[in-house]
Amino acid sequence: MWLFAGSSPHRPLLRPFDSIFSQSSQSIPSRLFFRTGCLAHWGGSWRSSRQLLLLLDILPARVPSPAYCMMAARGIDDAWLPSSLEAARITSLPSTAYYLPNFISEEEERLILDRIAAAPRPRWKQLTHRRLQTWPSDLVQNKLLDAPLPSWLETPVVSRLLSLPLSDDGQGDGVRHIFAESPHQRPNHVLINEYPPGIGIMPHKDGAAYWPVVCTVSLGASLCLNLYRSKEDGALDPEPAWRIIQEPRSLLITTDTLYTDYLHGISDIKEDLDLSANTIVNWPLLRDAEAFASGRNPRQTRTSLTYRDVLKVSKVGAKLGLFNKR
Known about the structure:
Layout: E1 13-16, H1 17-24, H2 30-36, E2 38-42, E3 45-48, H3 49-56, E4 74-76, E5 79-81, E6 97-100, H4 106-117, E7 125-126, E8 131-135, E9 139-140, E10 143-145, H5 151-163, E11 189-195, E12 201-204, E13 213-219, E14 223-228, E15 242-246, E16 251-255, H6 256-260, E17 263-266, E18 271-272, E19 297-298, E20 302-308, E21 312-314, H7 316-320
Parallel strand pairs: 10-21
Antiparallel strand pairs: 1-2, 2-3, 4-5, 6-16, 7-8, 8-11, 9-10, 11-20, 12-17, 13-16, 13-20, 14-15, 14-17, 18-19
């Protein structure tokens, strides 16, 4: 559901809490203020987002974290989307990255995991310690055979990616989304990776086959993603430059030089350690930072969906009618 800004008594005006705090700090209980993260002007007074949702009788199972101070209260079950990606920016990184902790709901997560598990055995590619699926197909010489993604990978993920504007500037009637400048203006390839406890992936770059936007949806469990620099001599600096926690049902988007200049990887460990606001760059955006208050995250099986736009697409698959089964 959308709650639009406006002057009508039936269309509440939503504003970021930092601007409201500077203007109305005397009238805002700090406990309520920081817990809801968003206030709305309704009926002549400022109300919290939770109060507003109660008024409209659409209160979801979870109230969004303070990171969602800019949200336009678009809730889908227990999924929450901000009004724009700018509200989800990881500000302590040198280039553009976004983190949305509640991108899909628990029910949507379950349904996607069920579809992954139900895939025929030939869909799985077994590696030494983990396995993966590619949809609609593997790349052949950095080209993708033209074919649609299955409907369960399109909805809800792709539809939400394309509905989220980059900013709240309000320019134009169309939505300038994260794939607006990519060749196909949408992701056309999904890599599904299953990571058992203790298994990760070595630091790497995704390469030149893709547009430099990577959207990763995490399912099942949390883990810590490491970002690495290269030294002046080209060798990898073994110490992560930054660390990002990816919670289940979250979306992480990396773009620009984070894609082209830095490597990313997941350590082969059974427990993520030293987790805190000082060591995790997306800590203020987490859905449940208290879950990591001990500084530890015992690993469980985590599945990732990586959405990208492959630059070169061959029409051979479409002509032959390949990969059209959903």
